[in-house]
Amino acid sequence: MSEQDKTRQTAGGRLGGAAGPGGAISRRGFLRRLGAIGAGAAVFSTAICQRARAQYGAAAPDGPTLEQLTAMYTDMLKIRMWETKIKDLILGGGFRGVAHLYVGEEAIAVGVCHALRRDDYIASTHRGHGHLIAKGGDLGRMLAEITHKATGYCKGYGGSLHITDVSLGILGMNGIVGASHLFAAGAAYGIKVKGTDQVAVSFGGDGSIQGNFFSSAANSAAAWKLPWIGVIENNGYQIWVRAADVYGIVDLAQRAQGYGIEGRVVDGNDVLAVHNVARYAVAKARAGGGPTIIECKTYRWYDHYGAGGAKIGADGAFGLGYRSDRELRDWMAKDPIPRFRAFLVAEKVLAEQRADQIAAEVRQAVEDAAAFAKGQPLPKPEDGLMNVFAQGAVALRAG
Amino acid sequence: MSEQDKTRQTAGGRLGGAAGPGGAISRRGFLRRLGAIGAGAAVFSTAICQRARAQYGAAAPDGPTLEQLTAMYTDMLKIRMWETKIKDLILGGGFRGVAHLYVGEEAIAVGVCHALRRDDYIASTHRGHGHLIAKGGDLGRMLAEITHKATGYCKGYGGSLHITDVSLGILGMNGIVGASHLFAAGAAYGIKVKGTDQVAVSFGGDGSIQGNFFSSAANSAAAWKLPWIGVIENNGYQIWVRAADVYGIVDLAQRAQGYGIEGRVVDGNDVLAVHNVARYAVAKARAGGGPTIIECKTYRWYDHYGAGGAKIGADGAFGLGYRSDRELRDWMAKDPIPRFRAFLVAEKVLAEQRADQIAAEVRQAVEDAAAFAKGQPLPKPEDGLMNVFAQGAVALRAG
Amino acid sequence: MAKSMTYAILEAIQGEMRRDKLLTLLYEYQKPVAGGEKGAINLEAEFGRWRVRFCAIDEQWIVGGALGMSMIGVPAIAHIPSMTTFIPYELMFNHAGKLRHMTGGQAAFPMVLWADMAGRIPLQGAQHADAGLESSYARLAGLKVVIPSNPYDAKGLLIAAIRDVDPVIFCQYPVPASGQPVPDEPYVVPIGEAAVRTEGGDLTIVGYAPQTVEIAKAVAELKKEGITAEFIDPRTLAPLDGVMQTILKSVSKTGRLLTSDDGSYSFSNCTEIVARVAEALPGTRIKRLAFPDAPAPGAPEMLSYMRVDAARIAAAARKLVKG
Amino acid sequence: MAKSMTYAILEAIQGEMRRDKLLTLLYEYQKPVAGGEKGAINLEAEFGRWRVRFCAIDEQWIVGGALGMSMIGVPAIAHIPSMTTFIPYELMFNHAGKLRHMTGGQAAFPMVLWADMAGRIPLQGAQHADAGLESSYARLAGLKVVIPSNPYDAKGLLIAAIRDVDPVIFCQYPVPASGQPVPDEPYVVPIGEAAVRTEGGDLTIVGYAPQTVEIAKAVAELKKEGITAEFIDPRTLAPLDGVMQTILKSVSKTGRLLTSDDGSYSFSNCTEIVARVAEALPGTRIKRLAFPDAPAPGAPEMLSYMRVDAARIAAAARKLVKG
Ligand SMILES: Cc1ncc(C[n+]2csc(CCOP(=O)(O)OP(=O)(O)O)c2C)c(N)n1
Ligand SMILES: Cc1ncc(C[n+]2csc(CCOP(=O)(O)OP(=O)(O)O)c2C)c(N)n1
Ligand SMILES: [Mg+2]
Ligand SMILES: [Mg+2]
Q1: What is the pLDDT of residues C266-290, one digit of tens each?
Q2: Which among A296, A334, B112, D97 has the fewest CB atoms less than 10 Å away?
Q3: D55-68 residue pLDDT tens
Q4: Does the beta carbon of A124 lie inside 6 Å of ligand 1?
């Protein structure tokens, strides 16, 4: 680990503060950094990109990295557009489901999940659509599930809060705050037993570090250097409660220190910053270096739940009592998607036209997903008695 | 807080390391330090005493401090002799009770409880006899209780694990590891509601910082600056499990940092060191300065439970598989009681003769307690149906 | 407009907080604020943040903190949301319910665990649509469990719970604002007393909380057919002895018992009532309706297929009476 | 010398760990070590520390970790000590029991919660002398609960539990090494099947774990008096349907049911069995014996006054048969 990284590794240190290896960086160095996953790599932030660009002119990374960057951009758009569609459907009335929207936080799911292999595990939350999409979830089956259709991911049993695709290594979205951390740490233990180099990542909000689960995950991961990465999506609110009123710390990654875990704070609206810290943590975990806790500072554009304060065809939920519209507007100005697009275009990873085309394709995919979900059949009533156990059905006792 | 204190306040810093305000200290300064309870006071360790003594010759503090020091010595002896009696009774066979012996750790209970007022609260553990004695518990009623007699503190319902005197501000010994911390933090919240300047202290072993309770206590105490003091009695073992095998940290007070709490590490076999950190923490808490977590490094002389490996009339439990006899002997050489006695005698707080006399008195008190307990009546069988609720008895369902 | 359940509950707490200057509420995100005809209630605004404290997402703290406070004589209400009802289970079991006994009567927990219960609501998924959790609490020694089925009982039972020196679990299910009007003044509905909702001679029906809505419909339906049901709402699940007096009296008369639960079938709610009747009155014809031993699916089709409703209650009653 | 309960259990785990190279045990301080005639078992020595892991005092980890592992296909056994049996209650309730259903069958938890149960032992105090906790688990959807009463059943039920892809709670009460000899080889006692311990025609007695000792004594005593009891050990509490077939068959014959519990009376263990019999066979004469709804006091005088013993079982049986 470089010295710079070390200074940043204390929880208080903010990525992008004293960032980057000074001015002198070669193009090769820049690309290596972009693609680096070794324990020495660690930090690649927009600031570095900007400096690199200033020095070497716009330049697109080639090979798989190019693909990956494009895929990251595509996934961010997928989350944004798919969820915006949900929001519009809710506002349209008669929506057969619920949703905790992730819009505004896309950089985290995408930055983290694109540092993972398909066979790595993630454990998700009530606000987990984004994680699922970033890990490869199918938009149509997802929408079918959150409208409780028989062909949805969970055959209609689960809905938005529990939608999952276990075959993608997703240990479930979970409606119980904090449980994700514990299950991922458990999975990380299982990885050690299996002897593979997989990793297990849990997502959780700023509210997820208290309660019973986080502490057990963190201590075990620290004690036995488990390949666990705890991602704290700090969007400033636990429904309407502010962290500052219920915690004695400001940077939540500081919790890591009490367990002897490396804690990192990162700009959660900068997908490359998130991605690079995630890659660092993943490489470290694969190499047996143990866990990392990454706090990503971000903001949610909509209300905790549903679409209150939002309008069809417009972004953001305004007029919510617990936060100011101005605060929201400030954060919308830090929208991770145009920010990333601008970078990609400037770096010639994407031409403007291609970027537009991707947006159009994603928009179409979302419409297709909505149409697919709409046409899907409802579950059979008696299927509720199934899947309690692996075998058979339980008895109906209602009459 | 002085600069020295600041350096010591990080969890890693050990009391007695770079301790003390250098050589130049006046006798008045020494006495002030000994008696100090202001936030500026903080540290008074044997090292300081020794330096002070070297400079000013042996000198006994006068007034209440003298009494208090004598009382502390007396209480340490009470714990030691009362528990040694229990050990002998167990080994004698047919003992009507169980015990987790505290011998070796007396300096912690006494150092902490003598920094408290009678109206302050403590929450205790399975290894809590010492806490109860240091807070003023009656040796006879205690022994009656651990032998489940009708006139014991808990009328025979509780026994060793739950013996308590609520009128002394004791929130109960508790057989569930870690629960003490949560209840004390709750009491600390209640103190805030009442608006008094009381404090609430919880004791817990090195095993008590994991699990569900500690985290909830620490976070709440930190968030709202509750007058809570968490004392970690780190005796190196959780039954036979070593902390190093199950934690990612070495100094357990480091846990404090993750919550934004001041953590202190102290020599738990030095009663004055413990006492002074406790006084500092208590004064801080009374003044609204919030919680402190104090880790006291110590050792238990007997097995986790009962009297295995011990002999009647001899100290210590040898030949236990999980620890070496040598380790035990090293710690017995650090016995807090002769260490304190030597200090008191050297400082002319106590004459040798008076010290011997106290020991004889305590020995007699213990014998009296044993005789008292032996003569007490057994509970009535049907009383088990009482005290489930405040009113009445529950129905017998057994036949 | 009748007072809602929430309004009635907050009115109860407001009155008790005015009466007892130490009574404190710890809660999470469910703001103790309600508007009603009689004016808005805002507990934090009235009593300040120390006595009305929103907390981190940490139900272990909310309940454990309340226990610690109450042990030093600061009575406390711990309010936790429905999906977390079992997080403090160990605390209530091993501490709240046992400490008085273990200390020979020295310790007391004058606290109320105000536990939200979701009930079988659709489109949520199993973690947010549960019912019947009260029976896990009802079997723990040293705890009292009350379950109001309407705002009037809610206010009176909550005041009784707050004034009780023993720990009480107050279960709030979502029920509509039906029943008696709720007086503005404090009053007590005693813990341990059932309510006879309708009198009848053909069979006894027992159920509570959201099931009372279904039972009431079924009773009305049956009446049209000439079957008169005695409908008893237990209101208290623990201790049950007082409640059983009312139920046994009724079943001695009717000879038939039908129970109806939103909780799952096995080891649950009305099971204890059925067992006690069976012991005391052999020969009684008994039918227990309940949710199956399954989690609650999100899809409404599956969920409503599994839930007991008025039609099923009426059908079972007919069968008991005629079959 | 017969194999002890602990030996039988460790032998089961040893065999399964040899068979399945991923099976892992998380535990706290109760070393998985036992000596016996057939040689000592030391699981950590045989399988290494990763697969046999002692943990911090953190039952939430032990169970939650086992759940996480099992979700990725690493089957796990979580062993927790008796006083902590309800610490993982929420995990088993909201996650282990629901996730398969919530995910439409995708998720599975091939794990066993090996929960120690203290039983009503004297001189410990209420937190360390509890019984009956299994009924709180038995009412949770998606979980299986087994309770062996002797080493033979313990080994066979534990192997069944380990091989089951659904989460199983394996309750270990302290019981003496009685019953059938324990074969060295792995074998399965199927989950969901009761055992008829003695056959008889006058009444049916149901009970398990330490109560089987008292029941067996009472049955022998009654036999001398000419009363023949059919003694059934359910062995599984959830799912209960298979067990009930055996019990209902017996009660149809005897017409009388006596249950005997170390757990408390209300909302507990045999309550469900009583209720099911009452529904299915109206007219059955029923008596439920149990510990009172109270914590267990430490003093032996109080404790034994409260516990069901052979004399009380025999007395209740006589009354049922003759009264
Ligand atoms: C253990 C638990 N307590 C409470 C809740 C209710 N609840 C659901 S989401 C939520 C807020 C979560 O806040 P945070 O962790 O910051 O995530 P965010 O919603 O901001 O993404 C709460 C309190 C829950 N689901 N689980
Ligand atoms: C929650 C919980 N888990 C397990 C136990 C069993 N147990 C009793 S004491 C003990 C060891 C405690 O170790 P430590 O906290 O270091 O205290 P010490 O005994 O060393 O004083 C354990 C595991 C318990 N009582 N409570
Ligand atoms: Mg948040
Ligand atoms: Mg210890």
Answers
A1: 998 899 999 999 999 999 999 999 9
A2: A334
A3: 999 999 999 999 99
A4: no
Q: Specify the residue with its C-alpha closest to ligand 2, atom 25.
A: B176
8 A C-beta contact, residue B316 and residue B286: no
Asked whether D82 and A199 are in contact (CB, 8 A), the reply is no
Name the residue type at position D116: D
The pLDDT, as a whole number, for residue D176 is 87
- Which of C98, C288, C294 lies closest to D127 in CB terms? C98
The pTM (predicted TM-score) of the whole model is 0.93
The Cα–Cα gap between A161 and C308 comes to 25
* Protein residue closest via CA to atom 11 of ligand 2: B238
pLDDT tens-place string over residues B335-364: 999 999 999 999 888 999 999 999 999 999
Token pair of C280 as six digits = 């005391």
Phi, psi (5° rounding) for residue D151? -60, -35
Q: Judge whether C9 and C39 are in contact, CB under 8 Å.
A: no
Interface probe with A: pick from B206, B214, B215, most Cβ of A within 10 Å: B215
Active site residue D44: no
In a domain, A382, yes or no: no
Q: Which of C133, C77, C80, C139 is nearest to C110 (CA)?
A: C77
- Total tally of structural domains belonging to chain A: 1
Least confident of A95-99, B31-35, B38-42, C92-96: B38-42
Q: Is 60 exceeded by the pLDDT of residue A314? A: yes
Domain assignment present for A383: no
| Phi, psi (deg, nearest 5) at residue B107 | -60, -30
Distance D67 CA to ligand 1 centre (A): 21
Residue A281 lies in a domain: yes
- Across A302-316, A364-378, B340-354, C107-121, least confident range: B340-354
Of A98, A210, A399, the CB nearest to C57: A210
Chains that touch D (3 or more CB pairs under 8 A): A, B, C
Which of B157, B211, B241 shows the shortest C-beta gap to D54?
A: B241
- Picking from C76, C51, C59, the residue whose alpha carbon sits closest to that of residue C167 is C76
Token look-up 């053909």 returns: C202
- Residue A153 CA to residue C298 CA, distance in Å, equals 13
Q: Which residue of B lies nearest to C91 if distances are taken between CA atoms? A: B179
Dump pLDDT digits (tens) for B161-173. 999 999 999 998 8
In a domain, B395, yes or no: no
Interface contact B239, partner D, CB < 8 A:
yes
Contact yes or no for B211/B177 (Cβ under 8 A): yes
Contacts of C304 in chain A (CB under 8 A): 381
Q: Provide the residue range defining the domain that includes A280.
A: 3-20+28-375
Residue B236 predicted with pLDDT over 90 = yes
CB hemisphere CA count around C124 (13 angstroms): 17
pLDDT of amino acid D1? 64
C46 touches chain A (CB under 8 A): no
The SS3 assignment for A132 reads helix
**CATH number of the CATH domain containing B197:** 3.40.50.970
The residue whose CB lies within 8 Å of the most ligand 2 atoms, and thus the one to mutate among D57, D83, D124, D130, is D57
What chain C holds in terms of domains, given with CATH numbers, is: 5-172 (3.40.50.970), 195-322 (3.40.50.920)
Give C-chain residues touching A388 at CB under 8 angstroms: 293-295
Ligand sitting nearest the alpha carbon of D29? 2
Q: Which atom of ligand 1 is nearest to the CA of C28?
A: 23
Residues of A in contact with B245 (CB under 8 A): 223
Question: Dihedral sign, CA of B81, B83, B84, B86?
Answer: positive
Closest ligand 1 atom to Cα of A205:
15
Helix runs in chain D, H state only:
5-19, 43-47, 59-71, 89-91, 99-102, 134-138, 151-163, 210-224, 241-254, 269-280, 300-306, 310-322
A289 — contact with chain B (CB < 8 Å)?
no
